[in-house]
């Protein structure tokens, strides 16, 4: 059955067809559409597959491990920085091993279209000794899901599946199976001693997983996804150039050579990096260029500490050191004919940037208007921002925040600044980000009665990623009370222009109160509100 | 055949619906398709684009190289200019001529129009006015698609059939409004 699918959707369909029992995820661009697809899929609903959003990536990863322990197949999805949040269970999942197959799908975002950094998740796979797959196109992404689950069960290890923005958010025709494999039954094949990481058990498992690496590399060398492609017409003794291309970089190489690549080409889509294939390429070529999406992961391994002069790539300037690959930069690196053709015929100096902005009618706008009005009464106020639509409050006309680092950092950074003597120290955080990683920081602040004012700007959804359910909806006052926020310093307001006098008065009073206070401006996201109104019509 | 298309506009203007219709028509013809979309932060009123490639032969890259696009379809005139380095020397621009001004430093509209007029193959249509005048206010993007039909090299009937399939579950009224919008666009290009 042919379907026109986003890379993310192909992954989701592939997982369902591979007998998935549950997906566990927190929304994050460019990975969100995987879970959304499973939530809307008829087979998934019929089978009652778990697909509700999790509070954060760590709870997601742990729930998936629990499902695997019971013998069933689980998928965990996140954006690259989400892997930092669940790094603890991710790394330890190799040491426990798995029972039912576990695939950890991480979508990296080189060029940072919607992210804070461009970290490359393949480093995590290597460091955790977990086999890593990197599909080159949507069809491969679909096909690989079944292979990855089977391999995970065969090796008793999770599999890391790494994609990047262009794979995740590009659509293509995918040939899908006509039916989905049955789910695994519950089974108790797992060994308790593997899952209890007391040092004695962990040492035994660590030795086992370390010893397993040679087999994983041999499997990668034999994998149908890693291919050594020789040119049709061989040259004398050695080729002047050989190419290693991983994941979607393989497509850019092929784009440069419509008549077929004139150089030996090693396609890599499964790790650990198979040294035998790399050796074969190095032996037949004078120089080798490594083309990979993300950081120079393969390139550094191939160059080694002695920095071979014959290995080219991002580290030698043939390719840009940072940022996403494009067919143009790959063509330039390969000096392909298409690079000469790419002198633009047209251009315009008139074009100006059009940055994103908070939507008209968004409640965050009213929150920033009120906050700015109050803060101009103080010398050197500092506002610690967080991750979400409201990060756009940094831009004009508001210019309202002074930091944004990672999920939940607003509250803890405000506390640290207050500890240093800063006043006023204001934290602004969204509802979904607060439950993701803000609650524990608030407890720290309360335990020391830090002199901070926390604004939880609640729009009843995870808005930045398109309006997914937010874990704490209707629970925020209870959460704050439970953590110890005093009743008289916990306020809920409705961020609308007509309520400005009330909101500014409360913000002012709470800044002047020298302890932890929480203000919750609450009004539904204008996007989800419009969408619901449309459905009602 | 091989057609490389850049669809562009401002987040929320409906370029992905145009892509869906073209993709549906192409899939029905058993053509190869690659369509890179933009999701996430820039959808909030920022510039957005989608690279859509259709071909009778397999397609390698999801992204269109510079100077390779056959057509730029733009919901906004300045956004059409943004992607000029990607346009082939004999490529076409099909654009709305109504500016979307959500930034303080938007260039003079007259200059934008002049820049467009200087290019060899441009169809600039006031799709919003046409949509209002013809009672299909929500289908301005499909009017633009109608205006692009010849440049795309896809048969008119095939786009029509794709619209019927894409909008089928939204009911007959919406299907007919979009069929009408497609015809308005086709007539506007002539």
Q: Can you describe this structure?
A:
The complex is a heterodimer of chains A (537) and B (190). Chain A is 41% helix and 16% strand. Chain A has 537 residues and is α/β, with parallel strands linked by helices. Chain A has 3 domains: 2-222, Rossmann fold, CATH 3.40.50; 227-339, Rossmann fold; 363-530, Thiamin diphosphate (ThDP)-binding fold, Pyr/PP domains (Rossmann fold, 3-Layer(aba) Sandwich), CATH 3.40.50.970. In chain A, β12 (285-291), α14 and β13 (311-312) form a beta-alpha-beta unit. Chain A is globular, with a radius of gyration of 26 Å. Chain A starts with a strand and ends with a helix. Chain B is an alpha/beta fold. Chain B has a single domain, classed as Pyruvate-ferredoxin Oxidoreductase, domain 3. Chain B is built from 7 helices and 6 strands. Chain B has helices spanning 15-28, 77-82, 109-117, 127-133, 140-152, 156-167, 172-189; strands at 2-10, 32-36, 47-55, 69-74, 87-96, 122-125. Chain B has a 6-stranded mixed beta sheet. In chain B, β5, α3 and β6 (122-125) form a beta-alpha-beta unit. In chain B, α5 crosses α7 (172-189) and α6 packs antiparallel against α7 (172-189). Chain B is globular, with a radius of gyration of 16 Å. At the A-B interface, β1, β7, α12 and α15 of A face α1, β2, α2, β5 and α3 of B. β7 (170-175) of chain A pairs antiparallel with β2 (32-36) of chain B.
What is the name of the CATH class of the largest domain in chain A? Alpha Beta
Broad structural category of chain A: alpha/beta
Largest sheet of chain A: 6 strands, mixed
Low-confidence stretches of chain A: none
CATH topology of chain B: Pyruvate-ferredoxin Oxidoreductase, domain 3
Distance between the termini of chain B: 24 Å
Roughly what fraction of the amino acids of chain A lie in strands? 15-25%
Largest sheet of chain B: 6 strands, mixed
Q: Unreliable stretches of chain B, pLDDT < 50, 5 or more residues?
A: none
- Class of secondary structure makeup of chain B: alpha/beta
Q: In percent, how helical is the residue content of chain A?
A: 40-55%
Biggest chain pair contact, residues each? Answer: A-B, 49 and 50 residues
Q: Kindly identify the CATH topology of the largest domain in chain A.
A: Rossmann fold
């Amino acid at each position: 059955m042919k379907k026109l699918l986003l890379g993310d959707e192909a992954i989701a369909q592939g997982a369902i067809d591979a007998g998935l029992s549950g997906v566990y995820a927190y929304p994050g661009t460019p990975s969100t559409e995987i879970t959304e697809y499973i939530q809307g899929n008829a087979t998934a609903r019929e089978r009652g597959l778990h697909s509700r959003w999790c509070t954060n990536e760590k709870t997601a990863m742990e729930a998936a491990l629990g499902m695997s322990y019971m013998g069933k197949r689980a998928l965990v999805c996140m954006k690259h920085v989400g892997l930092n949040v669940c790094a603890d269970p991710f790394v330890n999942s190799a040491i426990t091993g798995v029972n039912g197959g576990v695939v950890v799908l991480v979508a990296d975002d080189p060029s940072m279209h919607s992210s804070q950094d461009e970290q490359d998740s393949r480093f995590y796979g290597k460091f955790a000794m977990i086999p890593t797959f990197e599909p080159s196109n949507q069809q491969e992404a679909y096909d690989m899901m079944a292979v990855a689950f089977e391999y995970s069960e065969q090796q008793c290890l999770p599999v890391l599946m790494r994609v990047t923005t262009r794979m995740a958010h590009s659509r293509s025709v995918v040939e899908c199976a006509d039916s989905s494999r049955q789910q695994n039954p519950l089974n108790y094949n797992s060994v308790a001693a593997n899952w209890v990481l007391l040092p004695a058990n962990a040492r035994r498992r660590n030795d086992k997983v370390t010893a397993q690496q040679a087999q994983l590399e041999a499997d990668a060398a034999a994998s149908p996804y890693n291919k050594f492609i020789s040119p049709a017409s061989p040259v004398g003794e050695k080729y002047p150039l050989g190419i290693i291309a991983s994941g979607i970089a393989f497509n850019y190489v092929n784009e440069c050579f419509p008549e077929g690549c004139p150089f030996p080409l090693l396609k890599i889509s499964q790790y650990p990096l198979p040294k035998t294939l790399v050796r074969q390429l190095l032996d037949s070529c004078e120089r080798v260029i490594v083309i990979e999406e993300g950081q120079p992961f393969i390139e550094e391994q191939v160059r080694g500490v002695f920095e071979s002069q014959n290995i080219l790539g991002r580290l030698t300037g043939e390719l840009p050191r940072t940022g996403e690959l494009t067919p143009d930069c790959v063509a330039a690196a390969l000096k392909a004919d298409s690079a000469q053709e790419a002198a633009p015929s047209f251009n315009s100096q008139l074009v100006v940037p059009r940055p994103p902005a908070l939507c008209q009618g968004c409640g965050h706008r009213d929150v920033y208007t009120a906050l700015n009005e109050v803060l101009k009464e103080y010398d050197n106020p500092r506002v610690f921002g967080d991750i979400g639509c409201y990060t756009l409050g940094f831009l004009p006309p508001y210019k309202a925040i002074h930091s944004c680092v990672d999920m939940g950092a607003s509250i803890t950074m405000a506390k640290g600044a207050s500890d240093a003597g800063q006043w006023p120290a204001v934290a602004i955080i969204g509802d979904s980000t607060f439950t993701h990683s803000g609650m524990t920081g608030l407890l720290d602040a309360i335990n020391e009665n830090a002199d901070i004012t926390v604004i939880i700007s609640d729009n009843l959804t995870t808005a930045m990623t398109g309006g997914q359910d937010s874990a704490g909806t209707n629970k925020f006052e209870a959460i704050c009370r439970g953590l110890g926020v005093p009743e008289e310093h916990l306020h809920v307001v409705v961020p609308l222009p007509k309520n400005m006098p009330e909101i500014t008065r409360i913000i002012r009073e709470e800044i002047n109160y020298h302890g932890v206070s929480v203000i919750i401006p609450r009004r539904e996201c204008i996007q989800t509100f419009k969408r619901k109104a449309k459905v009602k019509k | 055949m091989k057609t490389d298309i850049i669809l562009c506009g401002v987040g929320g203007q409906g370029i992905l619906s145009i892509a869906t219709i073209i993709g549906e028509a192409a899939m029905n013809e058993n053509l190869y398709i690659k369509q890179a979309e933009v999701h996430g932060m820039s959808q909030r009123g920022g510039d957005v684009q989608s690279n859509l490639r259709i071909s009778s032969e397999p397609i390698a890259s999801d992204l269109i190289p510079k100077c390779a696009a056959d057509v730029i379809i733009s919901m906004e005139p300045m956004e059409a200019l943004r992607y000029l380095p990607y346009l082939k020397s004999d490529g076409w621009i099909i654009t709305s001529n109504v500016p979307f001004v959500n930034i303080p430093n938007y260039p003079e509209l007259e200059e934008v129009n002049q820049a467009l007029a200087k290019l060899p193959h441009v169809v600039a249509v006031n799709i919003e006015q046409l949509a209002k005048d013809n009672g299909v206010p929500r289908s301005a993007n499909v009017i633009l698609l109608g205006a692009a039909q010849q440049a795309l090299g896809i048969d008119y009937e095939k786009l029509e059939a794709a619209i019927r399939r894409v909008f089928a579950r939204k009911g007959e009224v919406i299907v007919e409004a979009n069929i009408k919008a497609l015809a308005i666009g086709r007539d506007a290009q002539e």
